[in-house]
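To illustrate the input format used throughout this study, we show a single complete record. The first block contains the structure-token representation of the backbone; no residue identities are included at this stage. The design step must infer an amino acid for every position from geometry alone.
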């Protein structure tokens, strides 16, 4: 699936791209890895991630669980936020709103997330989630808090 928003955002420097393209690598053992989220494209203030469908992500009626979709939304903005910094930062969600628009049945999801406004410590983001066949199934609005640079 091609991007529907990426071209609006600047390309990354090779060093930033290298650092963030490893985000979600299987050897990291983070929660998004457990769910199976994969990076597809990164730019400054933008990320596109994929959640491949598998039956373990379903709820009892055979539809994808809303928690899996919310995890994709929350995870997608992490590299979108982080690509603006040359140093290590700790940041976390302080508010998230999810709107489920359509059910998902046995189909991969692709999320595009971007920074809509960046302050000194607070970052506002938006996310759109579509199926691999381009049906919009959810949107999200998120607010993150960003700490000062860390030394590690």
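Output of the design step:
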């Amino acid at each position: 699936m091609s991007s529907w928003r990426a071209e609006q955002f600047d390309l990354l420097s090779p060093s930033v791209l290298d650092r963030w393209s490893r985000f979600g690598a299987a050897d990291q053992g983070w929660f998004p890895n457990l769910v199976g989220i994969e990076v597809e494209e990164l730019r400054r203030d933008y990320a596109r991630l994929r959640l491949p469908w598998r039956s373990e992500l379903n709820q009892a009626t055979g539809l994808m669980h809303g928690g899996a979709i919310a995890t994709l939304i929350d995870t997608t903005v992490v590299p979108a936020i982080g690509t603006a910094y040359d140093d290590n930062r700790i940041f976390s969600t302080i508010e998230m709103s999810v709107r489920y628009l359509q059910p998902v049945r046995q189909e991969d999801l692709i999320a595009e997330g971007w920074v809509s406004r960046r302050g000194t410590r607070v970052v506002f983001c938006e996310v759109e989630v579509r199926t691999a066949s381009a049906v919009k199934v959810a949107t999200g609005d998120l607010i993150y808090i960003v700490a000062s640079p860390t030394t590690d």
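Structural context for interpreting the output: The mean pLDDT is 92. The chain has one domain: 6-149.
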